[in-house]
């Protein structure tokens, strides 16, 4: 064994004197212990790096998944807010075993708003799927029959032309959603106001093209992918069209619950034996938020599993480190090192791996979450508790799995440790 000034020289460096000269305290100073721990980890080389990466990947998983869940909730909330918090959507449904009267094919919206003064606008919706042709090109799409009030209820924005009016009820006019207008585009023949579409056996004139509206979970179909006709014109396509839904805009959000009851009772009176279900955005939003929060916790749990795997890696590296440094531990103890000094050295090594892994993993996790959110087309906002939770859990896991190797080193007997294997 090499010697330095009469003292044995162990594997990872020189054995420092047990007396802290600066403080007069017996044992290692923190600076000295930190220096020796860093030197030991440096000698471990790739094994230290792999243990650090295990903690980093686990920490990154927790932070990234929490941020993905957080931004998914924000996106859902913004979607609901954009479609209006004072919207009501009523759906007609069958009651099994009961003779039902067919749902109405049209709706007197003025009578509805007179009966329920707190509702400012209402529009019926009936859907029909068929093939539409434009200059020989056919596209399968949804036909939405409705009234002129739909624009006011959903705050539809027009890109070209105009929307349906009360004077268009008996006409063959059509308004196109933004996406279906792009699909029907033919080379050198872009669809525009005045173009003719063949729907069934009839030609319909395009009088307007809507701007992109985005998804609306409350509606039975996407406005962007629909061709909108006067609801009276649906009789040209179907022999007995029936209203499937009614969308309404309330005057005030504070009366939504009572408005929903009034709307349901009014529509039930129009169709005997039908069950009417009225949806309120706030109720759906609350349910969606709870589901998204649960999903976020599930994602964090999956990240926690990978963090546990990283902790096992730290313990494995530290146990191998203790096994390889038995003689060094024995020499230190023979020269007066206390079990607490030996344990502190190995706990400090585990802490260094955990802190470095947590710092690197936090940066990696934020970057991964940011990229996922951006590729999804969402607006990124950092979850406030993701970083503290990710870093704290990484430190706790790393230190927890470092306890066993540290105790194993501290409990070694000098005679046992110095004995050759």
Q: What's the SSE pattern? A: EEEEHHEHEEHEEHEEEEHEHHHHH
Structural domains: how many: 2
Mean of pLDDT: 82
Number of strands: 14
User: Which geometry do the CA atoms define?
Assistant: elongated
- Which percent band covers the strand fraction? 15-25%
Count of alpha/pi helices: 11
How much helical structure, as a percent, in the residues?
40-55%
Rounded to the nearest angstrom, the distance between the terminal CA atoms is 16 Å
Can you tell me the residue ranges where pLDDT is under 50 for at least 5 consecutive residues?
1-25
* Structure classification: alpha+beta
Strand order of the largest sheet: 6-7-12-9-11-10
Report Rg: 35 Å
Largest sheet entry: 6 strands, mixed, barrel
How would you portray this structure in words?
By secondary structure, the protein is an alpha+beta fold. 49% of the residues lie in helices and 19% in strands. It contains 11 helices and 14 strands. β3 and β4 (25-26) form a beta hairpin. α2 packs antiparallel against α7 (281-324) and α2 (46-82) packs parallel to α9. The longest helix has 44 residues, at 281-324. It is elongated, with a radius of gyration of 35 Å. Keywords: Cell membrane, Membrane, Transmembrane, Transmembrane helix. InterPro entries: ABC3_permease_C, MacB_PCD, Macrolide_Exporter_MacB.
What layout of secondary structure does this protein have?
Elements lengths: L2 E2 L2 E2 L10 E2 L4 E2 L3 H15 L1 H37 L4 E8 L14 H7 L3 E16 L2 E10 L3 H5 L3 E4 L11 E4 L1 H6 L12 E4 L2 E9 L15 E5 L14 E6 L5 H15 L3 E6 L1 H44 L1 H9 L4 H37 L10 H25 L3 H5 L3
Parallel strand pairs: 7-12, 9-11
Antiparallel strand pairs: 1-2, 3-4, 5-13, 5-14, 6-7, 6-10, 6-13, 8-11, 9-12, 10-11
């Amino acid at each position: 064994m090499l010697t330095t000034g009469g003292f044995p020289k162990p594997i990872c460096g020189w054995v420092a004197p047990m007396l802290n000269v600066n403080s007069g305290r017996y044992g290692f100073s923190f600076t000295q212990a930190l220096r020796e721990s860093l030197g030991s980890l440096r000698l471990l080389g790739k094994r230290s790096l792999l243990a650090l990466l295990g903690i980093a990947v686990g920490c990154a998983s927790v932070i990234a998944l929490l941020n993905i869940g957080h931004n998914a909730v924000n996106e859902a909330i913004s979607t609901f807010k954009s479609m209006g918090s004072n919207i009501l959507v009523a759906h007609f449904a069958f009651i099994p075993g009961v003779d039902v009267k067919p749902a109405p094919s049209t709706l007197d919206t003025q009578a509805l708003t007179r009966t329920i003064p707190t509702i400012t606008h209402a529009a019926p919706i009936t859907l029909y799927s068929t093939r539409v042709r434009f200059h020989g090109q056919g596209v399968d799409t949804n036909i939405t029959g409705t009234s002129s009030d739909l624009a006011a209820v959903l705050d539809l924005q027009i890109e070209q032309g105009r929307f349906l009016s009360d004077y268009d009820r008996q006409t063959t006019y059509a308004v196109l959603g933004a996406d279906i207008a792009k699909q029907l585009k033919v080379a050198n023949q872009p669809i525009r106001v005045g173009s003719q579409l063949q729907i069934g056996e009839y030609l319909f004139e395009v009088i307007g093209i809507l701007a992109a509206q985005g998804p609306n979970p409350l509606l039975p179909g996407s406005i962007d992918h629909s061709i909108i006709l006067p609801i009276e014109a649906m009789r040209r396509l179907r022999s007995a069209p029936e209203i499937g839904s009614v969308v309404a805009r309330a005057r005030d959000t504070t009366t939504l619950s009572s408005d929903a009851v009034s709307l349901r009772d009014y529509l039930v009176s129009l169709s005997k034996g039908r069950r009417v279900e009225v949806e309120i955005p706030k109720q759906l939003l609350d349910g969606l938020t709870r589901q998204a929060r649960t999903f976020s916790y599930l994602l964090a749990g999956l990240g926690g599993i990978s963090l546990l795997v990283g902790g096992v890696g730290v313990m494995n590296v530290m146990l191998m480190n203790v096994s390889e440094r038995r003689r060094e531990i024995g020499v230190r103890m023979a020269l007066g090192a206390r079990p607490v000094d030996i344990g502190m050295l190995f706990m400090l090594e585990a802490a260094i791996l955990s802190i470095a892994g947590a710092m690197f993993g936090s940066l990696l996790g934020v970057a991964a979450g940011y990229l996922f959110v951006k590729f999804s087309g969402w607006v990124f906002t950092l979850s406030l508790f993701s970083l503290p939770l990710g870093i704290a859990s990484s430190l706790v896991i790393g230190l927890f799995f470092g306890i066993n190797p540290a105790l194993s080193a501290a409990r070694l007997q000098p005679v046992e440790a110095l004995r050759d294997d």
